[in-house]
Design goal:
Layout (H helix, E strand, L loop, with lengths): L23 H14 L9 E2 L27 H20 L6 E3 L7 H5 L11 H19 L4 E8 L3 H9 L2 H4 L4 E5 L7 H10 L4 E6 L5 H10 L24 H16 L11 E3 L15 E4 L4 E4 L1 H10 L7 E2 L9 E7 L5 E7 L5 E7 L2 E7 L3 E6 L1
Parallel strand pairs: 1-2, 2-3, 3-4, 4-5, 6-7
Antiparallel strand pairs: 7-8, 9-10, 10-11, 11-14, 12-13
Helix pairs in contact: 2-4, 4-5, 9-10
Length: 387
């Protein structure tokens, strides 16, 4: 794992030397993605999220970290070139048979631990007003001309800031017309489902989707916060994420965290949820900056064993039983201790997902148009009902 980009030539504002050949994309990522796509007839929705422009486009002259308050160098040449970079990347993937559904404008554009911490990740600081102007003046028009089918996702960061940042991004109609939706992460500020719901109700024409989450990251995040030379917007402690870094084989608690977040994001009008990692090795890597994490599948390279983790099965209650284009329906519940969501599938089946994070079983009675059934959702479990 390493930092890399597709144009290492300073001053190449027309990106004449842009290429993805010889990068991890063509060596590892795209061949693996092709194998995955070939295993199913279902349509994959692929999106890409940039972490950093090439160093020569940035104020700090490095891909790692970012200057504040602007990561990208000021000026028409740099902003237009960065927008062109998106377009050329999408074209390069199309030429290899991969059609992107969407791109995000920038991964975690307001994450201060990226900006100020030693050993940080690749980053590019983008204040909401700068995102708004870049999208309006450069990225939006460029993709509308070159790849009009590709959607643009903004925010792509923590939930607590969504309501404020979305209003800045949406206040200019010329920017708003290019925004398809908002991406959210779960790493700071606790649950913030109310923020997601308020944003969805304010901008019902835009979708909200979970674009990144993982377990086992917290000690690394805590260490970055302690090193920061600027206030960090981590709300500590995070109420429902475990605080041990890296994989924990068989952790039921981490599965519950996934179920809780996915279900309540959906109940707050989100339309999807994505894990940061599908498979990691037994250390929670590989990772080039040491922030080992957990994932739904752990591949023990030494023992040649795949561990299908509890989060994998919790996610399965949503991915298996809620096919694309399912519609969430409103419902009422008389017991707040039981977390529930209800959907109608394209096949007109009703799906009820019930999550019980308590130490005792809870009786569930489902009433729907005069028909009803009763069941018990056992302690510390998730159950799905289809009728």
């Amino acid at each position: 794992m390493e930092s890399y980009n597709y144009c290492e030539y300073p001053g190449d504002f027309n990106l004449v030397n842009f290429t993805i050949e010889g990068t991890p994309d063509t060596k590892i990522i795209l061949p693996l993605l092709r194998r995955a796509l070939d295993t199913t007839s279902q349509k994959f929705l692929l999106f890409a999220s940039p972490w950093s422009p090439p160093a020569w486009m940035k104020n700090n002259e490095e891909m790692v970290g970012s200057s504040f308050p602007r990561g990208l160098k000021r000026g028409l040449r740099y902003e237009a070139t960065w927008a062109l970079y998106f377009s050329k990347y999408i074209t390069a993937l199309k030429q290899r048979g991969f059609n992107l559904w969407a791109v995000t404008l920038q991964n975690e554009p307001m994450a201060p631990h990226f900006t100020f911490s030693p050993g940080a990740w690749e980053a590019c600081y983008f204040l909401p007003r700068l995102q708004r102007d870049f999208l309006r003046d450069h990225l939006g028009p460029t993709l509308a001309a070159d790849h009009p089918e590709v959607k643009i996702i903004v925010h792509d960061s923590q939930k607590p800031n969504l309501f404020h940042d979305s209003q800045v991004l949406m206040e200019d109609p010329e920017t708003a017309k290019y925004i398809a939706g908002f991406g959210i992460h779960w790493y700071t500020g606790g649950e913030a489902f109310d923020v997601v719901k308020r944003t969805a109700e304010l901008f019902p024409e835009k979708f909200i989707m979970g674009t990144e989450a993982c377990e086992g990251f917290l000690p690394y995040a805590f260490s970055l916060a302690s090193l920061a030379s600027s206030p960090v917007v981590l709300s500590l402690p995070l109420p429902y994420l475990s605080t041990e870094q890296g994989p924990i084989i068989g952790s039921w608690e981490r599965g519950e965290h996934y179920g809780h977040d996915i279900l309540n994001d959906l109940e707050s009008h989100a339309v999807g949820w994505m894990d940061w990692n599908m498979v990691l090795d037994q250390t929670g890597g590989p990772n080039h900056v040491g922030n080992q994490c957990d994932s739904p599948i752990i591949a023990d390279i030494n023992q040649q064993i795949l561990h299908y983790q509890i989060p994998y099965f919790y996610m399965g209650h949503f991915t298996r039983y809620l096919p694309r284009d399912s519609l969430r329906v409103s419902h009422t519940t008389t017991d707040s201790a039981l977390e529930t969501t209800v959907f109608i599938t394209p096949a007109n089946s009703t799906v009820v997902i019930a999550l019980n994070r308590n130490d005792v079983g809870i009786q569930l009675t489902v009433n729907d148009n005069g028909e009803s059934f009763v069941d018990t959702v056992p302690a510390r479990s998730i159950k799905t009902y289809i009728y």
